[in-house]
UniProtKB/TrEMBL annotation:
Name of the protein in its database record: DUF1349 domain-containing protein
Pfam family, one: DUF1349
UniProt cross-references to InterPro entries, sorted A to Z: ConA-like_dom_sf, DUF1349
Family annotation (PANTHER family): REGULATION OF ENOLASE PROTEIN 1
Highest taxon in the source lineage: Bacteria
Amino acid sequence: MDTELLTLPELPFPLRPYGPDGQWAYEDGVLTGRAGPRQDRFVPPAGTALDPASDAPRLLGAAPEGDFQLIARVTVGFTADFDAGVLYLHVGEHEWAKLCLERSPAEPTVCTVVTRGRSDDANAFVVGGDTVWLRISRTGTAFAFHASPDGEKWTFVRVFSLGDEASTAAALVGFMAQAPVGDGCVVTYDRIAFRPEGPRGQRDGS
């Protein structure tokens, strides 16, 4: 797939590739993407702007208006430190966020990055294996990140705002693969789901 839209039956909006070629493919409920060598999307906190060469394969679409949840079970073929499978949120060229299953650096870990010109970087908790469920949600003008070992009970990771009201409403959401220091990695996403509502509670496991 090059620049053509990809339609997943689980999602009410089409997806378009951005950045380097991710060799995105979908079959039997499984989405696969590949990061190439040293591909990442991160602005060092001491930096001043996004380096145009700092990019990674993304597959994104415009979420419908209103509250939502985007959910996927993410499996990463780890080969090097900081390889990651990502649920990605984009509201502007210098305003975007990542919810990652990342080798960070010694163990698979749920990590987050929120970029407002420069990126922050925070580890949430270690995952016992190469698979975890991730969820991005929007409630009003706020976004939230959650993770789960089973897709049933969700652990709160963070809640934040990003962009102004107009850009929040027009957010792009989807998937990303990264391999910042390695030679590349393969990421698969299955059990993909979209819900046109926010979580019942941010911190109660729902």
